[in-house]
């Protein structure tokens, strides 16, 4: 393996990165078949000074009815105060027009700065960003860019239910890596990889949610992250770091670095493809997420976009860009601090009710990020019995009593039974939480009575 070096552009040591050719064996046949869009690949050239472009079939913006767009936004530091932001002129024209596949330049630049601030990754160091219609869009495209039908993939287990169908429809063997209160169990991953059958191609990707995991609520510790990164290098796989709850961290200790940041401590960078989402931070309906990672993988994602939805909506990108530029990084940080405290308070309210009603009837670990409690129903006192299944308790008994949650089985790639349940604490009020957990208690008691 040849490693290329690039100057960091600062006085720091040379940063080593994996060369583009390294990713050849990581691209799926589908990605290799895709050709650059003849029009979209030339669109950036339209910005050449003095050039008259007859290239794209862009409609003439003067025919569009929109003449300006204004919206009110709360101040990130003084949420009682609002200001009006207006998008017009050239900004509006861009927002109403087709744009670059990877995203609107002003938003890409802002996000680039954000990644530098939060992950220490500098521009032109062998990585870049693409914007997608939510991180889900980019994860889907990344999976199809890298995984061939039938190939094995590594997924933490339980896993975000939104990726199971992606791997399922590709007929992948989903190899489950155990997790616990400290996040993904690197020791379980090591065993899987070290006992991998000789001659069978190893998985190319590991999917994990390191902060406030959906569904377990757990945050991977620094040690676990370092071990996983080391394994990625030893066994040649790419970590799909899906981190939509990164900004919803409310633990007391300083936050752990992301995989994307931590790989700067590795002998070379290039094993991490990171997904961020603005859904939990600005708006879920606005559908903006971004992928950060090696150019070769981002290029494959962009080629998918260029043949599917062409690009993420220019208008929503323009709105988000306007807001974020007006806030600056300090404003964004203040906003994040405020919303993470909001979720910490929600977590406390929920846990208070769980202690009140579910002590002895359920077990859980306390999340330090995100919006989920993952708890095990104690459906019997018999220590010899298996844990049982939360499915009937949740889908039938709890629902009949007026509470809706998710049985853990939906987060297991092979859909086996489990006594675990996922509950989201983001929306319910204190009163509603109290009622919901009381109803859950009644459902568990009923199930236990039947199990006697
Ligand atoms: C772990 C995880 N990944 C991805 C997503 C999708 O996020 P987005 O709204 O950015 O598409 C979610 C949404 O709940 C999620 O929990």
UniProtKB/TrEMBL annotation:
It comes from Hebeloma cylindrosporum. This is Aminotransferase class I/classII large domain-containing protein. Belongs to the class-I pyridoxal-phosphate-dependent aminotransferase family. Residues 96-440 form the Aminotransferase class I/classII large domain. InterPro entries: Aminotransferase_I/II_large, Class-I_PLP-dep_aminotransf, PyrdxlP-dep_Trfase, PyrdxlP-dep_Trfase_major. SUPFAM superfamilies: PLP-dependent transferases. It comes from the Eukaryota. Its cofactor is pyridoxal 5'-phosphate. Keywords: Aminotransferase, Pyridoxal phosphate, Transferase. One of its GO terms (biological process) is alpha-amino acid metabolic process. One of its GO terms (molecular function) is pyridoxal phosphate binding.
């Amino acid at each position: 393996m040849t490693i290329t070096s690039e100057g960091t552009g600062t006085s720091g040591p040379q940063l080593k990165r994996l060369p583009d050719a390294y990713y050849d064996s990581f691209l799926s046949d589908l990605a290799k078949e895709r050709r650059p869009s003849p029009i979209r690949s030339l669109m950036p050239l339209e910005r050449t000074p003095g050039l008259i472009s007859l290239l794209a079939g862009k409609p003439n913006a003067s025919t569009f009815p929109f003449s300006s767009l204004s919206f009110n936004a709360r101040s990130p530091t003084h949420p009682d105060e609002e200001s009006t932001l207006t998008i017009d002129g050239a900004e509006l024209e861009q927002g109403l027009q087709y744009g670059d596949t990877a995203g609107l330049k002003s938003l890409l630049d802002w996000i680039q700065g954000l990644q530098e601030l939060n992950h220490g990754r500098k521009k032109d160091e062998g990585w870049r960003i693409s914007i997608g219609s939510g991180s889900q869009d980019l994860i889907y495209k990344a999976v199809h860019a890298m995984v061939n039908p039938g190939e094995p993939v590594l997924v933490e287990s339980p896993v975000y239910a939104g990726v199971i169908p992606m791997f399922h429809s590709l007929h992948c063997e989903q190899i489950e890596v155990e997790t616990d209160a400290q996040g993904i169990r690197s020791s379980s991953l090591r065993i899987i990889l070290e006992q991998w059958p000789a001659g069978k191609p190893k998985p190319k990707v590991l999917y994990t949610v390191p902060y406030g995991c959906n569904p377990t609520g757990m945050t991977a510790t620094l040690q676990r992250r370092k071990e996983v990164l080391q394994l990625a290098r030893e066994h040649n796989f790419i970590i799909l770091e899906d981190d939509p709850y990164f900004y919803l961290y409310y633990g007391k200790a300083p936050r752990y670095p992301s995989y994307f940041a931590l790989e700067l401590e590795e002998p070379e960078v290039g094993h991490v493809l990171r997904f961020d989402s603005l859904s939990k931070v600005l708006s879920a309906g606005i559908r903006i997420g971004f992928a950060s990672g090696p150019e070769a993988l981002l290029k494959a994602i962009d080629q998918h976009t260029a043949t599917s939805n062409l690009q993420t909506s220019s208008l929503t990108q323009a709105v988000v860009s306007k807001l974020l530029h007006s806030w600056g990084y300090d404003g964004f940080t203040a906003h994040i601090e405020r919303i993470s405290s909001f979720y910490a308070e929600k977590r406390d309210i929920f846990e208070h009710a769980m202690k009140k009603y579910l002590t002895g009837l359920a077990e859980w670990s306390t999340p330090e990020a995100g919006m989920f409690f993952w708890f095990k129903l104690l459906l019997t006192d018999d220590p010899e019995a298996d844990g049982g299944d939360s499915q009937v308790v949740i889908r039938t008994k709890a629902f009949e009593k007026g509470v809706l949650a998710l049985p853990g089985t939906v987060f297991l790639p092979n859909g086996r039974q489990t006594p675990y349940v996922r509950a989201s604490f983001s929306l319910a009020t204190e009163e509603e939480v109290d009622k919901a957990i009381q109803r859950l208690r009644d459902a568990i008691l009923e199930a236990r009575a039947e199990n006697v």
